[in-house]
Amino acid sequence: MLYALSTVLLAAEEAEETGNIGLVLPESYELVAGIIAFGIVFFFVWKWAFPAIDKMLEDRQRAIKGQMEDAEAAKAEAQSLLDDYRKQLAEAKSQAAGIINEAREAAEAMKSDIVAKAQTESAQIGTKARADAATERDRALASARVEVANLSIDLAERVVGENLDRAAQLGLVERYLADLERMSD
Predict the structure, then answer these.
(1) For the chain, which has fewer Cβ within 10 Å, the N-terminal or C-terminal residue?
(2) Which residue in 44, 11, 47 sits closest to 3, CA to CA?
(3) Other C-beta atoms within 10 Å of 12: how many?
(4) Rounded Cα–Cα distance for residues 71 and 65 (Å)
(5) What is the rounded distance in angstroms from the CA atom of residue 12 to the CA atom of residue 35?
C-alpha cells in the first residue's frame, strides 16, 4: 500500500514538472485523502463484509451440496423403482406366457377328449347300425321266408289243382329254405 502511495506521489511530482499531467492527476492532498478513505473502506469490508460474503458462499455451497445429495437419493430411488417395474413386467410376461401355455394345454386336452368321445360314439353308432342292419336283415329274411312259403304253396296248389295239406307243405318249404341258408353261409 505504501508502494502505491509513493508511486502516486512520485507521479504527482512529475506531473507538476511537466505541467500537462496535472490536469489528469488529482492534487496530492486529494490523492492522500482518497487513499486513506479507501483504506478505511477496505478495512470495514475486510472486517465485516468479506466474512458475511464468505458465510453466504459457504451456505450456498452447503445448500447446493444438499440439493445434489437429494438429487442423487431421488435418482437412486427412481432407479430402484425402475428396476422393480422391470422385474414386475418380466414376471407379468412370464405369468402371461404360463397362462397361455396352460390354456393351450387345456385346449389340447379338451380336443383329445372330444376326439376320443367322437371316435367312441362313432364306433358305438357303427356297432349299433350293424346290429340294426343284421336284425333288419333277419326280419326281412324271415318275412321273405314266410312269403316264399306262402307263394310256393299257392303255386303248388294251382299247379296240382287241388288242396294240399298246408301244414305239410309249409314244413317242406321250411326245410328247403333252411337247406338253402346253410348252403349260402
Answers:
(1) C
(2) 11
(3) 19
(4) 10
(5) 14
Give the CA-trace dihedral at 153, 154, 155, 159, to 10 degrees. Answer: 100
Q: List the grid coordinates of 156.
A: 303248388
The identity of residue 30, as a single letter, is E
Q: Could you tell me the mean pLDDT of each successive run of 10 residues in the chain, 185 residues long?
A: 66 58 72 90 88 91 93 92 92 91 91 90 89 85 75 66 64 74 69
Alpha-carbon torsion, ordered 12, 17, 20, 24, to 10 deg: 0
Backbone φ and ψ of 162, nearest 5°: -135, 170
Q: What is the DSSP letter of 23?
A: G
C-alpha cell at 5: 502511495
Which grid cell sits at 101?
A: 401355455
